[in-house]
Amino acid sequence: MKRIFTKISVLCIVSAAVLTTGCLGDEIRGTEDSNGSQTTESTIPGNSVIDARVFEALNLELPELAAVKAYYESDQYYLAAEALLNYYRTRSLANNNVNLIAPTITAQEQARADWALPVTGGNQDGYRFWVENYLDGDKPYSYQNGTKLDWTARSTAETEERFRLHRLQWMVPQGKAYRTTLDENYVTSWMSVYESWLETFPLPEGDYDFEADPSGQPEEVRTALYAWRPIDVSYRLEDQCDLIYYFMQSSSFTPQLLSSFLANVAEQAEHVMGHYSEDSAALAQESYAVYRAGTIFPEMKRAAEWVKSGSVAMNDGVDISIFDLLNLSYGGLSKVASAYAAGDYRVALQELLNSYRSRTHGLNPNVNINSDAATANEQNWANYAFRENGYRFYVNNYYDAAAGANVPYSYMNADGTGIDWTLCPTGEQEQRYQLHRHQWMIMQGKAYNTTHDERYVENWKEVYGDWLRQNPKPEQGTDVTNSPNWRPLDVAARVIDQCGLLEYYQNSENVTEEWLSTVLKAFDEQVNHIMNNYSTTSNHLITQAQAVTFAGMLFPELKNAETWRTNGPGVLGQQVTAQYFPDGWLKDGDLHYHISSIADFRLALLVAQQCGYESSFPESYLESMRKMTNVVMNMIYPDYTVPNMADTRRATWTQSVLTRNLTQYSQLFPDDQSLLWMATGGAQGTQPTAKAVTFPDGGYYVLRTGWTMQDMMMVLQNTPDGPKEQWHRQSDNNTFELWIKGRNFFPDSGAGSYGGNSSSNSIRSRYAASKAHNTMTLDEKNVSSDGRMLKQESKSTSSYGYEVLVLENPSYEGLTHRRTVFLVDDKFYVILDEGYGSAEGTVNLNFNITEGSDAQVVLDKDGMGFHTAFNDSNNLFVRTVSDQTASFAEKSGFVAYNIVTDTYKEISRKAYRLDVAKRAEDVAVRYVTLLYPTADATAVQPFEAELGEWSQTGASLTVRVDGKSYNLSYTL
């Protein structure tokens, strides 16, 4: 069905009232004789030139046809037809398809118009009538024989071509060509061809099967039957609704032609209405043509019946539920509203699709239609999702090792006939959740954006349609906190990506009215589901509110959009402070989600700005984000890696990802020269100067010598709560990492798993255990978490200076761990660990070391430490002394920089602990550890330390490092 609409113009016949060209005006006024004098002899043609059937078809009782009726009843058919033509030239009925004020034509339409003209001269191969899908090389076939039109020229063509010829689909292009050029050749050619067609192909009288192959019909009607298959008649009839607008102002358009034209319109409308197809697609086209004839030609007696019949038939089986969700008062839906009010639901749906195809780009900050492209990996993952590849759906971090590198798992059902959305190959709950985020779909959208390969759209329709059928929304009131397919966080991820998909696929031929309605209804349902099931306090709520904000900003035509635009920013405006400590740290204490949440806040603000709703956010919103970005800047090592603590998963935060985020922060805060320096790798801005940075609310601390690759940086974690209070935390208070010149000598063990089954839960517990971290334990049991900072200060003597950081955590009942770190003279670190209280047992000091071979990482049992021997001269000498007898125990260490899966394995490393037996009467157990960077650890002189008396109010110690003594102290 043709469904392309141009601008409506209610003034489309602006000059018709003063025109009487090509009609009775010249003929009854007379002509000049050979002497130049006027004659008054009447030359009115007789009734025979007019197709009298037109008067039977017209409703002559209409007041506007009074002149037509008067002439007709006085037996003056020509004058009646003349009055009818003048009426049509002056009526103001708009045609949504036709723009006569600013007519346009495409190059393709112009070619079709010109091909259809006759050709004179040597190559008499004109009348090349465009028939869809049938070409003579790169042009339509010719129907010219000598100088004449020959309708039999393709009499041996295949049946479908002979049927489709009679859609006469080159005529509208000729109408457009005339309106853009005012070249009368297009009119005269059209008239001669149309009149020839009327004469050659009259509607056969009798009861025939108009759908059948005419070659099996009686010979006397065989030729005509090719022209009267109902589906072809409907295309012809639909175009005639436009042709009269294009041609009727021409001086060549005569009353005679008008009478034949309108009689043919009526004849065709009745024919189609009497032979509606049982095929739904054909019925939609046929009924639409009948409906349109009734609306464009309301002067016909049967116009109301055409409208009613066409409306009922064309709306039969049409799902109009989408209109319940649309705000038809929204300005961008005026054509939708008009068609819906007229009862033309198919056209209303088509206008809805047209409105989406004409939507403005650039409002969605996640989409750049001019440059977005899939990366090589994304392209592969987009293709893996095809049925022929086993529905291998990309789920972040989960790959089928048996199928190859980075190959997603297959979700093909056991029968090989479809998708099994219940499959979870690893058994991990996180894989189950993330499957329902549909992460591969946005990759397919990017792939389509550059390739325009319709397979991606077809796969989206197939897979998403299947998902909608197999995963209905739970009833309101159902607890969806852990729902695998309707958990609000995963729904939010789907919604955000759907916003992008509808833009990438905006002009795809496979996005139909029905599919758009399906997607929008599902979209509305999912956004409301999020809003009705918001998480309470976790970072999930931030992503959920971002999705609601996106929906409200980017889909203003939906009734619920106004509520979403208020609700989403309202929640974000609250959470930008509620989920963050005053120092800027996310309360769940995980850098991964800290950075991700900033992105959510930023994108929500951007989409509001670009859609004109920035005022939806409080004035304090940006300043809260400034503190969050300051956290990120300070937590990044100079080589653009990040600590592997909690659920951060260092491998996921590459330099390019971090730089992209820093660049976005710098754009938000152009006055921050330190951010600009970090974002540009030092090319612009000003290098930060801070060496000791504390986030006492969030429980993270940084002691560094500088910000370059030649510097050192220690990150410590001592948070106010643990995994019982914040799921992403671990039992790791007072742990640390130490980065020196591009090597992390004490990387945190990581997370290992998100859990979900007994096996993965065991992995997660193992990684979260206190003994897997660089901290103090009692009998290797997990610590409690209520960390706080007691002091941070800078001190100096005449010969050296040092930074002091004092942290404390009540790790166990009866044992508090106080960790004091001294950064001495920007050369080395000394850690004083003190476990005090009435507890008894074995106090362990745990160290988990960087990866390396036996030759590269050398444990020293007698020296109570280790050293490294890397050949790049970037090494570390570590020794510990205690005020009590300590023993050295080697352990099996491990580390994972991502989730452990079939394709990503944990890495073995060396680890050890130092044990001191503590009795209840022992006030404290104390360790002093030296962390000394050196080119050659074997050349470092022995480490010595002398501890002063234990005191809860301070500490003093003297260390001898590589032959030099340093007195270190603090007082609370």
Global mean pLDDT: 92
Beta strand count: 22
Radius of gyration: 40 Å
Shape: elongated
Going by helix content, strand content and strand pairing, the class is alpha+beta
Largest sheet entry: 8 strands, antiparallel
Beta percentage is 15-25%
Query: Uncertain spans, ≥5 residues at pLDDT below 50?
Result: 1-40
Strand order of the largest sheet: 9-10-11-12-19-16-15-14
Number of helices: 28
Tell me the span between the first and last alpha carbons. Answer: 83 Å
Percentage of residues in helical conformation: 25-40%
Task: Give the SSE layout.
Layout: H1 24-29, H2 53-57, H3 66-73, H4 77-90, H5 107-115, E1 144-145, E2 148-149, H6 159-165, H7 171-181, H8 184-200, H9 219-225, H10 230-247, H11 255-273, H12 280-296, H13 303-314, H14 334-341, H15 345-357, H16 376-384, H17 429-435, H18 439-451, H19 454-470, H20 488-504, H21 513-532, H22 540-554, H23 561-578, H24 591-610, H25 621-635, H26 655-668, H27 673-679, E3 692-695, E4 700-704, E5 712-717, E6 735-740, E7 743-744, H28 758-768, E8 776-778, E9 788-796, E10 801-812, E11 815-824, E12 828-836, E13 841-848, E14 857-860, E15 865-868, E16 875-882, E17 887-895, E18 907-918, E19 924-934, E20 944-947, E21 954-961, E22 964-971
Question: Describe it for me?
Answer:
The chain starts with 23 loop residues before the first helix and ends with a strand. It is of the alpha+beta class and 972 residues long. α7 (171-181) runs parallel beside α10 (230-247) and α21 (513-532) crosses α22. Helix content is 36%, strand content 15%. β4 (700-704) and β5 (712-717) form a beta hairpin. The protein contains 28 helices and 22 strands. Strands 9-10-11-12-19-16-15-14 form an 8-stranded antiparallel sheet, with no helix packed on it. A 5-stranded antiparallel sheet has the order 3-4-5-6-7, covered by helices on one side. The radius of gyration is 40 Å and the shape is elongated.
